[in-house]
Amino acid sequence: MSPKPNLLLRYMTVADLPQVTEIDRLSFEIPWSEKSYRYEINESSQSFMVVLEWNRQQTATRWQRWLKIHPYAEHRIVGYGGMWHIAGEAHISTIAVHPKGRGRGWGEILLAGMVQRGIVLEAEEVALEVRVSNQRAQRLYQKYAFRTVDVKQRYYRNNGEDAYDMRMDIQNSAICTEFEAHYKALFTRHQLIDYFSPYTPPHQK
Ligand SMILES: CC(C)(COP(=O)(O)OP(=O)(O)OC[C@H]1O[C@@H](n2cnc3c(N)ncnc32)[C@H](O)[C@@H]1OP(=O)(O)O)[C@@H](O)C(=O)NCCC(=O)NCCS
């Protein structure tokens, strides 16, 4: 029997919302409402919502064996993202990793999964906005050949901060070749399965 994957990219469901909204609340100054998530998951024909699930296989300790308590597998949402496909553009609407899980390459998996979805959809480019102060996220996007094309003045309504408009040209064959190498490397580095990027969201079938 092949080992279970450690990490699974899959479409977000309503059952994920308690965990997703908690990560959202811990990650953003303006979290989305639960109603917005429900709309994106169940109704929008342009929306692709993804979660990254971590399977932590627990092996029985000596005490658990003695007490005849069975080991368990813990399935936990460690991050999520969202993308809209509108007029040839794959627009990343959100991406976050639980604060306790950051720095392990999980944000990169979510970003790469959405870029791959954009490629499967034959979008012309992948676009997103990012706070000018959010250098951590900008570094991630730069790693994937996103470039800043514009500054959107006072884009964020909570503090009037500007946003960088960043874009990745997925029609460019050199960029796509480099992306494919990055994406492949993620599968080698992590025990990862992608049930997201090749498939249509259940509500759009
Ligand atoms: C942005 C975010 C999703 C990145 O997720 P993550 O899992 O921590 O990032 P990863 O471990 O996958 O790192 C991937 C790359 O991001 C960059 N990065 C990650 N952490 C960084 C840090 N502390 N400082 C600088 N760059 C960093 C690096 O380029 C890194 O690649 P490298 O490891 O090869 O150097 C995460 O920090 C987050 O949820 N932030 C809060 C929400 C947010 O700001 N979302 C973006 C909105 S536009």
Features:
alpha+beta; Aminopeptidase; eight-stranded mixed sheet; globular
Textual characterization of the structure:
It is a single chain. The protein has one domain: Gcn5-related N-acetyltransferase (GNAT) (Aminopeptidase, 3-Layer(aba) Sandwich), CATH 3.40.630.30. Helix content is 32%, strand content 30%. The chain contains six helices and eight strands, in the order βααβαββαβαββαβ. The chain has helices at 17-27, 34-42, 62-66, 106-120, 135-143, 173-189, and strands at 7-11, 47-57, 73-86, 89-97, 125-131, 147-152, 163-169, 192-194. It has an eight-stranded mixed sheet with strand order 6-7-5-4-3-2-1-8, with helices on both faces. Strand 4 (89-97), helix 4 and strand 5 form a beta-alpha-beta unit. Helix 4 (106-120) packs across helix 6 (173-189). The two termini are 32 Å apart. The model has no long low-confidence stretch (mean pLDDT 92). It binds coenzyme A.
